[in-house]
Amino acid sequence: MESITLQGGLSDRDTWRATSCSIAKALEVVGTRSAMLTMREAYYGAHRFEEFVRRVEITEAVAATRLRELTAAGLLSRVPYQDPGQRTRHEYHLTQMGADLLPALLALMQWGDRYLAEQPGGPLNVTHVGCGEPVTVDVRCAAGHEVDLGGLGVQVSRTRKTPASASPRAAR
Amino acid sequence: MESITLQGGLSDRDTWRATSCSIAKALEVVGTRSAMLTMREAYYGAHRFEEFVRRVEITEAVAATRLRELTAAGLLSRVPYQDPGQRTRHEYHLTQMGADLLPALLALMQWGDRYLAEQPGGPLNVTHVGCGEPVTVDVRCAAGHEVDLGGLGVQVSRTRKTPASASPRAAR
User: Fold this and answer.
1) Contact between residue A43 and residue B18 where contact means Cβ atoms under 8 Å apart
2) Largest Cα–Cα distance of chain A, in whole Å?
3) B104 with A107: CB under 8 angstroms?
4) B102 contacts in A (CB within 8 Å)?
5) Could you tell me if B29 and B35 are in contact, meaning their C-beta atoms sit under 8 angstroms apart?
6) Tally of CB atoms within 10 A around B162
């Protein structure tokens, strides 16, 4: 199996480590199973604490921790509500940041459907409501080519500001 | 923020839970930060035990556990090698199953680049080697439309074999 082509200052893999990698940073926020499944339920329309507890099948303590972390990180926002005769409580709404994590969860679903599901294609169909066609998550370049692992190249971002930090050893 | 449209038997969210969800199954395999970062290093071309330890910055014990789990799950294969004058050891090669997880990791990177990186766009550029254009992970339907959260619908898969298991309560 091929690998990603390491380009420029990254080409000698022994001289750098991915210390500030955006994958690692993302996993600091959503790197637990319960965080990911809490986001799944937010995508399915859950807002209230009890819904997350019930549908993710986690304890109230874990749900409270995950919802607090996801809110602090900016993926969910806390919105007050009040049922008649009850005290004010809070529910959780997706932010744009939270909604934009969708491709990662759909990519996991697509992969799980292909390799781990009990039935071919998985238990759920995801479609585009507008036209009814099935939805996939694709890796594609700006010119429209679908790209696999062997077709990918990675290099230090040209937006780095100082020449020093663009050296291989500082590459992230 | 909109949510996914739950269709057919799934439309009453109170009657079902995502108990055999392919996202959950995927996370049983790669639901830890160290598993995901081990896969990242495999994509960057790592094969040997010492490389995974050094580049993921995990202990030898954690690396051994992760590599054993990822091999058992089918994402990596163990291949014997022998350096001159040394005993036979094993290195780890991506399988097709492992390579096909790529969109999930790239989607996490793209999201981290956008929301969590210290510099705009993140530390690394990912491009299509063939044409040099930047690469993105997109959610797209078979008709070619880019689809966001509010444009997604989900229903019980039509490939389910028995009518009973297609009922909302059995939906996964």
Assistant:
1) no
2) 66
3) yes
4) 139, 148-149
5) yes
6) 8
Determine the distance in angstroms separating the CA of A162 from the nearest CA of chain B, rounded to an integer.
12
Q: How far is CA B125 from the centre of its chain?
A: 20
A43/B contact by beta carbon, under 8 A:
yes
Nearest residue in chain B measured CA to CA from A23: B109
Contact A116, B25 (CB under 8 A): yes
DSSP state of B10: G
- Whose tokens are 């091929």? That residue is A2
> In angstroms, rounded to a whole number, what is the distance separating the alpha carbons of residues B54 and B36?
15
Q: Does B21 touch chain A (CB under 8 A)?
A: yes
Decide if A71 touches B, using CB distance below 8 A.
no
**ipTM reported for the complex, 2 dp:** 0.89
Instruction: Provide the pLDDT for residue A164.
Output: 39
A to B CB pairs, distance under 8 Å: 362
Contacts of A95 in chain B (CB under 8 A): 1
Q: CB-based contact (8 Å) between A89 and chain B?
A: no
Is the four-CA dihedral B140, B144, B149, B153 of positive or negative sign? negative
Beta partners for residue B94, in sequence order: B76
- Name A153's bridge partners: A5, B127
Question: What CATH architecture applies to the domain A31-100?
Answer: Orthogonal Bundle (1.10)
- Per-residue pLDDT tens over the stretch B45-72: 999 999 999 999 999 999 999 999 999 9
Question: Mutate which of B20, B21, B27, B108 to test chain A, going by most A C-beta atoms within 10 A?
Answer: B108
* Residue listed under structure tokens 């799950």: B73
Q: Do A108 and B23 touch (CB under 8 A)?
A: yes
Token pair listed for B94: 């991506």
